[in-house]
Each structure stands twice: as C-alpha cells, then as structure tokens.
What does this fold into?
Amino acid sequence: MRSGDLRSLSEATNGGLDRATAFLTFDDGFRDNFETALPLLREYGFGAFVFVLPPLVDSGGALGWVEVAADLRRYPATMRSVTWAMLEEMKESGFEVGSHTLTHPHLPELGDDALREELWESRTRIKQRLGTCDTLAYPFGEWSDRVAAAAADCGYRYAFSLPTKSGQRRATPHSIPRINVDFRDRERRFKAKLSVPGKRVILSPAVAAVRRRL
It folds into this structure.
C-alpha cells in the first residue's frame, strides 16, 4: 500500500487507482505534525495532508476553540499550532497543506455570509503564503450539501468529512469520508479499520446512530 497525494486523489475521483492507496490526513495543524509526524513520513517516504487555521499559524498559538479547552489546560505544550515556516518545510517534504477554516466553527450552523468568509478567507491566506490551497477538512468533520456547494464555490477541489456521528455511504469530491485513527488503534484494530468490511461498518449509518446514543 502506498500513501496518496493530491495527484492520486485526483485519480481516485476520476476512475480509480491502480493499487491500494491510503490518504494520511492531519487536522488542526498540531505542532507535533512537524516535530513527530514529519520525520516519520520522511523516513518511510510517505506524503500526507495537513489542514490548518491561518490565524493560529500566524502566531503558532494555542489551539483553543471551546470544544478543546479542557485539552488545552491539560496539555498546553501539545495544543499549539504549527507556524508558516514549519508548513513551508512540511510542504517541501511532501505534505499537501489545506484549510481547516479560520476559527474551527460548526459549518452547517453558519449563515451563508459567515460560511463563505470562513472558507474563502482561509483558502486565500494559505494561497498567499504557500502558493496553493486545493483541499479542505470540515471542522468536526461536519458538512451538508449547502456547505459542500460553498466549498466548491470558494475554489476547493476536494473536501474531507469525518462521518462519526452521521455515517456516510456516498462520497463526492467535496464530501470524502475518512476513518479516524488514534492511540487505541493497535495492529489488529488498525488492520480491521483498513479492511473493506471494516470501512463499511465504520461508515454505516447504523454504527453512527449507536455512537450518537452513547
């Protein structure tokens, strides 16, 4: 299996790939994406996608939206953003840098003007600093048809969801479902998640419904 980049993502959405491919994505722009993930990706020759919030990248500041406030208090050294200089090095080493909006809001809850500002301004600022910004990861993985249409209108070629609470059978270039991987995923569980049956179960509406109840 190989790691995917923007070119192979385009191939995947236009008829398929000729070999098994995993797309590695990192949301929020944690500082350890640079300090820990980058050396490992270099070692193994993998590329990846990182999605950042430009106002936090400006200062390398704390990742401090309300939903992660408790984590920030417990892990202040970890809950910090990468900087533009770090992103430049990451991009040179195979990272595709995309947007995670400006302020990490719940996009489906925003009005049209606020939604467009979050999507348009974040993409513009990344393009100004790094030259390109073709991808978006929806904060909290939350999207709707209206949000996806706004992302396309703002110039994003691809956008990623995280259908933990809703399930997602259908995928378009602006609603690409992902499977979360974290510290609990040892070898057996990780392999199960990557298997075809495992992905079908994880992305199913029934499993999402159980998660909502829990």
